[in-house]
């Protein structure tokens, strides 16, 4: 036992997750069905803003759409009361990829180290009988470092999730208070400023695409500042989430100098979190995403800059450019829209379909 390789002291891969791989689909399905049912019940028991309430099927569809962050809607969003909008916000948050992956990582981490601790304990008992302990001590030290880093990574993921959404909500709320047009739009529709800020941020971050207004973001197509606030949310909660997470870890390592941060960066593949990518893969991801965005933006501006359907009425060139950038980024992610899709060219629709 003295020269026993460390990997023999670890639990088999099949024991490192709380459930066998074959049951992962069922566990996810159960989670989403349960949350959808709770969401439907909450929407059913609360009152809408209008006298006529949507049918049960439409409410359930809305709940499922929010949890699955698909943003398919059969009910106008302005029908829902302020409290119902907060319910939908919660459903989107609980169904978002970042939150679901964070929960899965925490569960996997707990079961993984519980199993590995049991294996180390068994080996230590055997080695005590043979009078050797060096390999066990190395394994215990390695397990301790790995466990500490996994715990730190879990906290970082939660901090990233909460920090991004809180900052986004704050910036939108301040923008609404400062910019008269945005404030007037919400006042005319009777939508609470804070609710709109939180709802829009979480919906955009989770790549759902719901917006409390019936027109989605068309009502704000000339509010370039608001669009620029939402664009990072689209990317940081979507395909650039691994990049954002790695940048946060790199910044923490630079500021604190703790060895745990450096361990996470150097052993990304061993941390057991699929969204934690190496620096090289993050670089490739950034280049790919930027390439798609630039390609779409060039095509979109070339074909729609002088659109005769009225999608740019009242907008100056800067506002048109920001709105175009927002539109092409959202075509691959949330589905939020600042233009009437029905009046843009078929060639652009084909581009959107390909990018989706």
From TrEMBL:
Topology relative to the membrane: Multi-pass membrane protein
Residue stretches spanning the membrane: 25-45, 83-105, 157-178, 190-213, 225-253, 273-300, 337-355
Subcellular location: Membrane
GO CC annotations, alphabetized: plasma membrane
A Pfam family hit: TrkH
A molecular-function term among this protein's GO annotations: sodium ion transmembrane transporter activity
InterPro entries: Cat_transpt, TrkH_K-transport
Keywords from the UniProt entry: Ion transport, Membrane, Transmembrane, Transmembrane helix, Transport
Record bears the keyword Membrane: yes
Family, similarity comment: Belongs to the TrkH potassium transport family. HKT (TC 2.A.38.3) subfamily.
Name the record gives this protein: Sodium transporter HKT1-like
Source species: Cucumis melo var. makuwa
């Amino acid at each position: 036992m003295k020269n026993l390789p460390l990997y023999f002291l670890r639990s088999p891969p099949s024991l490192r997750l709380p459930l066998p791989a074959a049951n992962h689909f069922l566990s996810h399905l159960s989670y989403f069905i349960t949350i959808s049912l709770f969401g439907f019940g909450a929407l059913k028991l609360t009152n809408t803003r209008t006298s006529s309430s949507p049918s049960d099927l439409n409410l359930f569809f809305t709940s499922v759409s929010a949890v699955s962050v698909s943003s398919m809607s059969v009910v106008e969003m302005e029908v829902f009361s302020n409290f119902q909008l907060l319910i939908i916000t919660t459903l989107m948050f609980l169904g978002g990829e970042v939150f679901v992956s964070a929960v899965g990582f925490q569960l996997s981490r707990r079961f993984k180290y519980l199993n590995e601790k049991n294996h180390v304990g068994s080996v230590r008992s055997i080695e005590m009988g043979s009078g050797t302990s060096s390999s066990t001590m190395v394994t215990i030290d390695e397990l301790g470092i790995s466990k500490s880093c996994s715990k730190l990574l879990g906290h970082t993921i939660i901090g990233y999730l909460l920090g991004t959404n809180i900052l986004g909500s704050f910036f939108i709320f301040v923008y609404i208070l400062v910019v008269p047009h945005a404030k007037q739009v919400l006042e005319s529709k009777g939508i609470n400023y804070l609710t709109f800020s939180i709802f829009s941020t979480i919906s955009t971050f989770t790549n759902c695409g719901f917006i409390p207004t019936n027109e989605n973001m068309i009502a704000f197509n000339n509010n370039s500042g608001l669009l620029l606030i939402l664009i990072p949310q689209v990317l940081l909660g979507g395909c650039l989430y691994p990049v954002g997470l790695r940048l946060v870890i790199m910044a923490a390592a630079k500021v604190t100098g703790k060895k745990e941060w450096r361990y996470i960066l150097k052993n990304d593949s061993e941390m057991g979190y699929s969204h934690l990518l190496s620096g090289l893969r993050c670089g490739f991801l950034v280049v790919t995403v930027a390439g798609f965005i630039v390609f779409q933006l060039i095509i979109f501006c070339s074909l729609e800059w002088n659109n005769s359907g009225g999608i740019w009425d009242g907008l100056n060139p800067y506002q048109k450019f920001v709105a175009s950038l927002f539109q092409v980024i959202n075509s691959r992610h949330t589905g939020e829209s600042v233009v009437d899709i029905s009046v843009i060219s078929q060639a652009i629709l084909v581009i959107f379909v390909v990018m989706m």
